[in-house]
Design a protein that fits this description.
436 residues, Transferase, Pyrimidine Nucleoside Phosphorylase, Chain A, domain 3, Pyrimidine Nucleoside Phosphorylase, Chain A, domain 2, four-stranded mixed sheet, four-stranded antiparallel sheet, 13 strands, binds uracil
Length: 436
Amino acid sequence: MITARDVIQKTRDRQKLTSSEISSFLRGYMSSQITDYHVAAWLMAVYLNGMSTDETLALTREMRDSGKVLDLSAIPGKKIDKHSTGGVGDKTSMMLAPIAAACGVTVPMITGRALGHTGGTLDKLESIPGFNPKPSPGKVIEILKSTGAAIMGQTDDLAPADRRIYALRDVTATVESIPLITASILSKKLAEGIDGLVMDVKAGSGAFMPTLKAATSLSRSIVDVCRAMKTKIVVLITDMEQPLGRAIGNALEIRECIEFLNGQTPEDLETVTIALAAHMIRLGGQARSLDHASKLAYQSVARGEAARRFRQIIRAQGGDERVVDNPDLLPRAANTTGFRAKTSGFVTRCDAKFLGLASNALGAGRHRVEDHVDLAVGIYLDKKLGDRVVKGEVLCRIHWNDERRFTGAVPLIEQAYQIESKPPRRRPLIHAVLKG
Ligand code: URA
């Protein structure tokens, strides 16, 4: 049998591992026969030398099978999820689940918490009073049957190998590796027992993959593995140079989602949400074509069906559904201060990463898993890329509770915005669509 040292050496020397070698290495790790230091060394070898599609596939499968795979066969129809690689103001999940469910798709959505400068859907949902992000497996089936969608956190028995490996990657500077990201995301998604997945791979300053080239390589890797696993996949590469929509911060983002479902929305948020929803509806077998699927998604919002569905999902998960009609029931910060333009011109930078860091500095995110999150604070963008501004006009509104934190956030907002005399070149919102 191959030893841990041999596995590390093979990857270090750019030799391919067989699936049984990957399998025995991972199983050895999960049964504590292989140590953190072996795996850390191997992760660095993977980070430096990459892995083939076959190796990535074997790693994904082994990580998925390290825990329970959900059995949703009791629920008729196609089960489709959506996953984003993470961004700032990226709130589409809370709208996609009710829209897709209102169009007849079943959505078992497993989602995460804020880490680094990006927000997390679970934290955002917890700003709805009473919302339970961890229903029991039996309750999940019940919710899916009655509402068509459940949005929940990862349970301990879902791809546990990913949790251990991710923690090691975090402290060994090996997170930004395409095969490791592919296996990490897909092991969790494929453990949900889904028939299809729509991935939103973000590209730009506020994304894991800042360049379009890196985002495209990650997307190809995800498509290749899903194809081999016989899971339908569509990847949209979408822009994250500036935040999506106008709200950043937990309760502020929920408010923006509610406004969207009630018919008011910033254009970029609508474009990306409807595109993702259409692919979910199409993969879910509920539309003849993508155009038809987009029309269904729009109709579900225009007719109030998606808002009704959101109310049902909130109620089924123990939350106060009245927030959909009265967003003032969401937590609100004690203070709001306008951040004003120092010159006149056009906004040529509205940097997602700095605005995400600023929102975190206010207390909306966390640096460590155990950090407390202030659900009320955040930033509302009055001006975005390309907007004309006059000196003294409000660029964004800072919602804050703690003066020291407010003082820490302001320099980051200063760095996020740039105003110049000429408007910037427009970036596409959707850079590419890949299908498997
Ligand atoms: N999201 C994940 O779940 N895993 C990664 O490795 C990166 C982003």
